[in-house]
Design brief:
Blueprint (H helix, E strand, L loop, with lengths): L10 E3 L2 E3 L3 E3 L15 H12 L4 E8 L20 H12 L4 E7 L7 H6 L5 E2 L6 H10 L7 E2 L2 H20 L4 E5 L5 H6 L14 H19 L4 E7 L10 H11 L5 E5 L9 H4 L11 H11 L4 E5 L5 H9 L5 E4 L1 H5 L3 H6 L14 H4 L34 E5 L3 H12 L3 E5 L9 H4 L6 H15 L4 E3 L6 H7 L3 E4 L3 E3 L12 E3 H5 L8 E5 L3 H12 L3 E5 L13 H13 L3 E3 L2 E7 L2 E6 L4 E5 L2 E4 L3 E3 L1 H7 L8 E3 L9 H14 L1
Parallel strand pairs: 3-4, 3-12, 4-5, 5-8, 6-7, 8-9, 9-10, 10-11, 11-12, 13-14, 13-16, 14-15, 16-27, 18-25, 19-20, 19-25, 20-21
Antiparallel strand pairs: 1-2, 17-26, 22-23, 23-24
Helix pairs in contact: 1-2, 5-7, 8-10, 15-17, 15-23, 20-21
């Protein structure tokens, strides 16, 4: 433990001891009932984080009232006393592990769920009637008018402040020792504080002091309700990353105004209502680790020992946390996605089992699902969000031990092998190449795919030591399966690149994106990437980052660009493509490859040529249906399972979940 002595140094605030300096940052699991009550599912989602060793477990984004505050489905309703019985149960189940439970009190303001509000005859409210940019973005794509936002009246401001206080009181009554006020990410308190949104002309707008008034009155009301012995954490964006928004200097001045009213300051950046800043608060794999820690450091220097400060943002390992804390620049480190990927990562780190920690790939599947009112799921941890089905993350042993063949060593096949072996089956995994990984081996070559490379290394290592027999360099035939007398067969033979049948496609300067990404082929200075899905866009970005002149061609319209990416990562990738000068052409089809480039035709039947030294094909993959048909009839079909890309083309999420779900039922 001495390696992590700063992480595991206890700290006491107002008589509450925190056993270490790790906080589970707020998340949006979407697991409350439609009325906003606690469910067993919600309790079991948070339990592993407490059991895994976190000092603080923060229940995410909970609405302070059920009128205007709600910003997503499956959210807790802190505006009704009926929530307390569930909160009490939740608090007991988290605090039994020595963790301190907290909860994020929130009001979405202009970011609130406009569809839900409309069903109640209401509109989003804010300091100023300014629609959320993300609402404007999607409304434009859909040809709709964004939801109208109403300016809050003084009586509504007063009621809302009281709602914050009452919500905090309900949490205290339910056994909570602390709450977090969500004043970051463009939520309602920030909508009053920020000159980017607040254009009011009364005592709540205009000057810095007036814009800060709502937040100060809110904190005073909460303190009156919960008392001096209760811990208040305030979440803030140190930089809203929009022109005219809050910047660090003014944020520090605001923190000095409230530092005697709060106990912990949780420092983030960005604003959710503006889609192009979300990437800086929930970083995708394209951004470096720990990009925002310097903001927390700057604020801590300004307030000194008068206030505890928590840093957050792609702190992905316990070593990252120790490095931050060892510098003495903050008091707590908040993490979320590492707990989702592997709730036991703290314990495994202490035990020296880093190779067993399932790494987060920062694909943001977990975060992105809430935008579409879906319960949380993790691409690499198939148990996340299904803890009631698999308590403690344990997969039950099979009633009958079977001999299971798995053909294909990509992510679907490897996950199937892991799960089947855990259940006690005899497993033989066949892979035709000389290494496991499948098409992931081509995908991890790009500079910004470090997270995916970490995951590939992890799952290969786990598969090799799970107890399954691994047969590399083995092309399975029907005879192979017949000879071994298997009880069950899982076919996970993957896919092959789709290569269009157009003139010139066999020319020497035409390459598949996988070979380009993995560095197997040389690429010229002027490049055309054909195919604007996720693979093509990432290939185009990687080449542009190396100084190449890149044009990205997509046959479909703009809506098809970056297809396959989560919402947050899509906005990030779109920003980076623009930053590095990638030229994007949509509604344009490849018709011919020439010695000088390509010929295309667009949706208006106009022909155009694009010069290129290299043509990169990223037109998707084709399931290996021929291999599936060769193998699927060898044993009784009730024990034959077809998973991964050879069933339908997907991604890491679909492959891992297919492998797990299949093997969990054999």
């Amino acid at each position: 433990m001495s390696k992590y002595k700063h992480v595991f140094t206890p700290i006491t605030i107002k008589g509450v001891e925190f056993k270490n300096r790790i906080e589970v940052a707020p998340m949006v699991p979407c697991m409350a009932t439609p009325e906003g009550w606690v469910t067993k599912e919600l309790i079991e989602f948070y339990r592993p984080f407490a059991k895994g060793g976190a000092a603080i477990v923060t229940v995410g984004d909970s609405a302070i009232n059920w009128q205007h505050a709600m910003d997503h489905e499956g959210q807790l309703n802190l505006g009704d006393d009926n929530v307390k019985i569930g909160l009490d149960h939740l608090a007991d189940e988290i605090q039994r592990y020595g963790s301190v439970i907290s909860i994020e009190l929130n009001h979405g303001g202009r970011f609130s769920n406009s569809m839900n509000l409309a069903s109640k005859g209401l509109k989003p409210v804010s300091s100023t009637p300014k629609p959320a940019e993300i609402d404007e973005f999607f409304s434009k794509l859909q040809g709709k008018t964004p939801a109208e936002v109403e300016e809050m009246s003084i009586p509504l401001i007063n009621k809302t402040i009281q709602d914050y206080a009452d919500a905090a009181g309900r949490c205290k009554d339910s056994g909570f020792k602390m709450v977090m006020i969500h004043g970051a990410h463009g939520m309602l308190p920030a909508q009053f504080l920020s000159p980017y949104v607040n254009r009011r002309l009364d005592r709540y707008g205009g000057s810095f002091e007036n814009r800060a008034r709502f937040c100060i009155e809110l904190l005073d009301a909460v303190r009156r309700r919960v008392g001096e012995d209760f811990i208040i954490e305030y979440r803030i964006s140190a930089d809203e990353i929009v022109e005219g928004g809050m910047k660090p200097d003014e944020v520090i001045e605001f923190v000095k105004l409230i530092k005697d009213k709060i106990d912990i300051l949780h420092v983030s950046v960005g604003m959710l209502p503006n889609p192009f800043t979300i990437q800086y608060m929930i970083q995708p794999l394209y951004l470096p680790y720990m990009p925002n820690i310097h903001f927390a450091e700057e604020i801590k220097k300004a307030v000194g020992d008068d206030l505890c400060v928590a840093a957050v943002g792609s702190v992905m390992t316990l070593d990252n946390a120790e490095e931050i804390l060892s510098r003495g620049i903050v008091d707590f480190v908040a993490m979320a996605r590492p707990f989702v990927a592997d709730p036991e990562f703290m314990r495994k780190s202490i035990q020296g089992r880093k190779e067993d920690i399932r790494p987060c790939v920062r694909c943001n599947t977990c975060c992105g699902r809430s935008a579409f009112f879906k319960k949380t799921r993790c691409a690499v941890n198939p148990v996340n969000g299904r803890e009631t089905q698999y308590p403690g993350g344990k997969i039950p042993k099979a009633d009958v031990k079977k001999k299971v063949a798995i053909v294909g060593g990509g992510p679907a096949g490897m996950q199937a092998a892991l799960t089947a072996a855990q259940r006690g089956h005899e497993v033989i995994l066949y892979e035709k190449e000389d290494r496991l990984g499948g098409t992931l081996n081509h995908a991890v070559g790009l500079e910004f795919k470090k997270d995916l490379k970490n995951y590939l290394d992890w799952i290969v290592n786990q598969t090799l030591k799970c107890g399954a027999k691994i047969m590399l360099n083995t092309e399975v035939t029907a005879e192979t399966i017949k000879k071994e007398n298997f009880d069950a067969l899982i076919i996970a033979v993957g896919s092959v690149p789709f290569i269009p049948n157009v003139p010139g496609i066999d020319k020497s300067h035409v390459h598949w994106a996988g070979d380009v990404d993995s560095g197997k082929v040389e690429v010229g200075q002027k490049v055309v990437v054909v195919g604007g899905g996720l693979t093509g866009a990432e290939s185009a970005l990687a080449l542009a980052m190396k100084g190449k002149d890149v044009t990205l061609i997509e046959m479909m319209g703009p809506e098809a660009l970056l297809n396959g990416s989560s919402l947050i990562n899509r906005f990030s990738l779109q920003t980076l493509l623009a930053k590095y000068g990638v030229k994007i052409v949509t509604n344009t089809k490849l018709e011919e490859v020439t010695d000088k480039g390509i010929k295309t035709i667009n949706s208006k039947f106009q022909w155009k040529e694009y010069e290129a030294d290299t043509v990169v094909l990223a037109l998707g993959m084709r399931p290996r249906k021929d291999k599936v048909e060769e193998l699927r009839h060898i044993i009784p079909e009730t024990e034959v399972y077809i998973i991964g890309d050879c069933n339908y083309i997907g991604n890491v999420y679909s492959a891992v979940h297919a492998g797990f779900d299949t093997a969990a039922e054999i």
